[in-house]
Design a protein that fits this description.
It holds the Pfam family Helicase_C. This is DNA 3'-5' helicase. One of its GO terms (molecular function) is 3'-5' DNA helicase activity. One of its GO terms (cellular component) is chromosome. By secondary structure, this protein is α/β, with parallel strands linked by helices. It has a single domain, classed as Rossmann fold. The protein is about 40% helix and about 15% strand. A six-stranded parallel β-sheet has the order 1-6-5-2-4-3, sandwiched between helices. Strand 3, helix 4 and strand 4 form a beta-alpha-beta unit.
Length: about 190
C-alpha cells in the first residue's frame, strides 16, 4: 500500500513504472483535500535587501510564539544565513535548520529534536518533509517561491494539522525565478 495526499497523476505513473506495478494492479483513490479552511494564506513581496525581510520574518515569529514554526528556504545557504540571523535576534527559542547538505548525524539530530518538540522553529529546504506530521505547527513561511505548486501545497499544509487556525506566509521576489532555475540546473548536472 502506498499513501500520499498530493501525488500528481504524472508522479503516480512514475512510481508505478519504477516499482514495476502494472496499471490494473493498483487502485488510485482521490479526495478533494486541497482546501484547508483552517490555514490563513498571506502573500508578501520580499524586500530585496535581506535584513529588511528578515526583520519582517522576526516580527511574524514574535507574533506567533505559542506554536511551532517551519520556515522554508530554497537553498542550503539561505537556511544557514536565516538560522544565524534568527539565533542573534530571538532569545530562549529553540531554533534548528535542516537541508540535504547536512551529514547523517546532523539530519538525525535535527529531525529528533523536531519530533520530540524540542525545536520550536525549523528552518529548512524542501528536504524537510517526509514523515513530518506535527499537529502543533501554527505558522509555515516560504522565504522564496517553491519549485512547484505541489511543493507549496505540501509544505503549507504542514500547518494546522490539528484543525486549529494556522497561518502561511509566502514571500516572493524578482530573484526567485533565477534561484529556481539555478537549482534545476544544478540538479541536472548531478
Amino acid at each position: 500500500m502506498l499513501l500520499t495526499a498530493t501525488c500528481t497523476r504524472m508522479e503516480v505513473n512514475e512510481i508505478c513504472k519504477n516499482l514495476i506495478i502494472e496499471e490494473n494492479n493498483f487502485a488510485l483513490i482521490r479526495g478533494s483535500t486541497s482546501h484547508r479552511s483552517e490555514i490563513i494564506f498571506n502573500v508578501k513581496e520580499r524586500k530585496e535587501i535581506r535584513d529588511q525581510y528578515i526583520t519582517e520574518i522576526i516580527s511574524i515569529v514574535n507574533a506567533n510564539l505559542l506554536g511551532r514554526i517551519i520556515i522554508y528556504c530554497a537553498t542550503h545557504s539561505s537556511c544557514e544565513y536565516l538560522y544565524n540571523k534568527l539565533q542573534e535576534s530571538l532569545n530562549n527559542i529553540s531554533i534548528n535548520y535542516f537541508h540535504g547538505g547536512l551529514c547523517d548525524n546532523e539530519r538525525e539530530t535535527a529531525m529528533n529534536n523536531w519530533k520530540t518538540n524540542y525545536t520550536q522553529i525549523m528552518i529548512a529546504t524542501s528536504a524537510f518533509g517526509m514523515g513530518i506530521n506535527s499537529s502543533n505547527v501554527r505558522v509555515v513561511i516560504h522565504v522564496e517561491v517553491p519549485m512547484s505548486m505541489t511543493s507549496l501545497i505540501q509544505e503549507a499544509g504542514r500547518a494546522g494539522r490539528d484543525g486549529n487556525t494556522a497561518t502561511h506566509f509566502i514571500f516572493y521576489g524578482k530573484k526567485d525565478i533565477r534561484t529556481n532555475y539555478s537549482i534545476i540546473a544544478e540538479y541536472r548536472e548531478t
